[in-house]
Design a protein that fits this description.
The protein has 81 residues and is mainly α. 64% of the residues lie in helices and 0% in strands. It contains 2 helices and no strands. The longest helix is centred in the middle third of the chain and has 40 residues. It is rod-shaped and about 100 Å long.
């Protein structure tokens, strides 16, 4: 199975002249680190969003409805014992 990321790194290595291997390797490694870092950041954002959605979902059952209507009857009524 061919990996397009790996192929692009190999193409970058082949494109540079052979006299400066260290500079070529540094450029390829910087590119690879940038791409991997961006993927990690997007993954972290996705996990954060999922955690927030789960928290809202779990907390929704604990919220009680609030009514702004005035109560016409007193809350405590006279009851016979």
């Amino acid at each position: 199975m061919a990996d397009s990321f790996e192929e692009s790194l190999r193409d970058m290595l082949k494109a540079q002249p052979m006299h400066d291997d260290d500079a070529c390797l540094d450029r390829v490694l910087k590119t690879a680190n940038r791409q991997v870092g961006a993927g990690d950041l997007f993954g972290l954002g996705g996990r954060w969003l999922q955690a927030v959605a789960i928290a809202f979902n779990n907390g929704a059952g604990h919220a009680s409805p609030v009514s702004r209507r005035r109560v016409s009857q007193p809350l405590i009524s006279d009851k016979a014992d």
